[in-house]
Amino acid sequence: MILAAFSDFMQQVVSGLASGGIYALLALALVIIHRSTGVINFAQGEMATLSTYIAWALIAHHGWRYGPAFVATLALSFVGGVGIHRVVIRPVERGSVLRIVIVTIGLLVAINGFVVWEWGGEPQQLQSPFGTDTFSIGGVIVAAHDIGTIVVALGIVVLLWALFQFTKLGLALRAAAVNPEEARLVGVRVSWMLAFGWGLAALLGAVAGMLTAPTVGLDPNMMAAVLIYSFAAAVLGGIDSPLGAVVGGLLIGVLLNMLSYLSQYGIFDWFTEELRLPMALLVILGVLLVRPQGIFGKPEVKRV
Amino acid sequence: MTTLLELDRVAARYGPVQALSDVSLVVREGEVVAVLGANGAGKTTTLRAISGTVSRTGGIELEGKQLKGGPEAAARAGIAHVPEGRGTFVDLTVTENLRLGAYARRDRSVKADVKRVGEYFPWMVERGSQRAGTLSGGEQQMLALGRALMSRPRLMLLAEPSLGLAPLIVREFFRIVRRLNEDEGLTVLVVEQDARIALAASSRAYVLEVGRVALTGTSAELRDDESIRRSYLGY
What we know:
A: two-stranded antiparallel ribbon; 2 strands; 3% strand; B: Rossmann fold; 6-stranded mixed sheet; 4-stranded antiparallel sheet; 10 strands
C-alpha cells in the first residue's frame, strides 16, 4: 500500500516535471520579452501553436521526417519572431506599455484566426519524437515522452544560459535589455538585439508547442491553458528572472500534480482537474500580493 | 599636431528647444580639451551631438571623415562616450561592463585589455564578479572610464565627471585621465561644470554661452585672466 502510494507519488512528480518543463520554456519566452520589450506577450501561446502547426503540416502534408521538420520549424519560428518584432512591435515600441500589450493581444487574435483559416479547427495528431512507450524504473512507471520532454527542456535551458552567460552576443542581449541607452553608446545595435529576443522567444514557444501537442492534441487553442500556467510560473519565479521562470515552471507543474495526487488520498479531496487553471490564477494573485518580485526577482539595486 | 575631431557650425535641438545653435571646435590628436559654460549653455549637448545621441545639423569630422549619425556608428568609429551620471550597466558585473566596452571592436584581445585597464584600476580585476550596481558612486565613475578605455578609443568624451562625486574622487579621476593622456596619448574632450578642475586638467578650452562658442584659448590663458574667470567661469 505504502509502496504503491510512493511509486504513484513519483509518477506524479515525473509527469509534473514534464509539464513543468514545458511551462518553464514558455515562461522563459515571456521573461525574455518582458526584459527587453517591457510587456507580457499575450500572443506567446498562439505563436507556439502556429509553430506547432507548421511542424505538423511539414510532417503530415509534406511527408517530412520528424527531425528535419523540428529543425525547420525552429528556424522558421526564429525568423518569424524577428519579423514580428520588426513589423508590428517596433513601430509601437516607444509608445506606452498599453499600446504594445494591445498589439500583442491583436497578434493573438490574428494568429489564432490564421491557424483556423489555414488548417481548420478540428484537433490533429502530432507524434511524439520519443514514441508512446512507457517503462518502469524501480516500480515507477514513466512515459518516454515525459522523460524526453524533461531532457529537452533542461537541455534548452542550459544552452540558453550558456548563450547569455558566455557569449558576446548574450552579453549584448542582456545589456540591450537592461540599459538600451548605454548599450547604444558602446556600439550595440539595440533594435536588432530586441528582435533577436523575439526570435528566441518564438523558438522557445515552438519547442514548448511541439512537446505539448502529443499529449493534449493539436488544436488552435492548445496553448491557451499552457500560457496561463506559464504566466503563473513567470510571476512565481520573478518576471525578470530566467532562472525564476525555470524553477517556477517546474514548481507549478509538480504542484498541480501533487494536488491531484493528494486528492486521490482524501487530502484536498475537493480538488478536481477543473480546478487546475483557477489554481494557477490563485498562484499569480498570491505572489503578486505577498511577494510581487517573485522568488528570484530582486528589488532594484541602484545608487542615485 | 593633426586634427582628430572637427565640429563645423553644429546645431542641435530637443523638440522645440534649440540647445546648440553654432558650435565649431577642433580637437587635435593627443590633446585634452575642456568645454566649459553655465548650466544650459550646451556643454552636454555638444557631446551628445558628437556621439549621435541627439540629432544635429552641421558637420562633424573624425580624422577627416564625416561622422554618421547614431550612437552605434560613433562607437564603431572609435568614439567612447562616458555619459553623465556614471553610465554603467548596474545589473551586470564589473568584468561584463568592461567586456561590453570592447563590444564594437572586431579583434579578440579583450582579455589583454582587461589586464591593461586593471593596471590603472587594480580593484576592477579583484572585484570583477561584483555587480556594478553595488559599487560606490566614485567606483562606478571609474568603471565607466575603464569601460570606455576597453574600446581603445580614438577619442574619449567625458560628460560632467565631477557630478555628484566627492572632491577627492574627482581629483583622482582627473589624475588618471591625465596619466592616460600622457602615457598613452589618449585624446579627451571633457565637458565640466567645475571650471577650476577642468582647466587644471586640460591644455585648451572652449567656453559656451547659450549654444554657441563664446571664447576659446589655452587653459592657462583662461585660468589667468581674472575677468574671464569672473564673467564666464564663476570662480
